[in-house]
Amino acid sequence: xxxxxxxxxxxxxxxxxxxxxxxxxxxxxxxxxxxxxxxxxxxxxxxxxxxxxxxxxxxxxxxxxxxxxxxxxxxxxxxxxxxxxxxxxxxxxxxxxxxxxxxxxxxxxxxxxxxxxxxxxxxxxxxxxxxxxxxxxxxxxxxxxxxxxxxxxxxxxxxxxxxxxxxxxxxxxxxxxxxxx
Length: 181
Description:
Oligomer: single chain
Low-confidence stretches: 1-26, 177-181
Strand order of the largest sheet: 4-3-5-6
Strand content: 15-25%
Distance between the termini: 36 Å
Structural class: alpha/beta
Helix content: 40-55%
């Protein structure tokens, strides 16, 4: 049986991912610690929150189970799909989800991370029942003005900012894990 492994670089971290192998390794590394649930929330769930979900699920699959949702779900941004595909993530089949669906389902999340920009922060939804709420302000690529190439370059910039923030946060979480062990 051959195992296909994809590699992604997150800041200074190289994440090797094959779902079964990575989950088993992470569970052993964590000593059976229960996964923490993270919900990334944006306005449309069409770009930033989708990217954050994909990056966290790839970076630390044994520790976190990431999801994403939006206040007013819109179709996935095609430039986001292209920018993510360029670095090995095919999320073209993901479906934007509404935050109200998660609220009405009564699902519990350990972290709610909002990814709205600072200007849209007042529209970023609040999710009841989370243990910790965090805000990471990223520019909204859907409102960027420019040529097609300029818009794609901006989407790549936002993608890389999100990827870097996930790497930093994972490093912090690893530090918390070591401190509490």
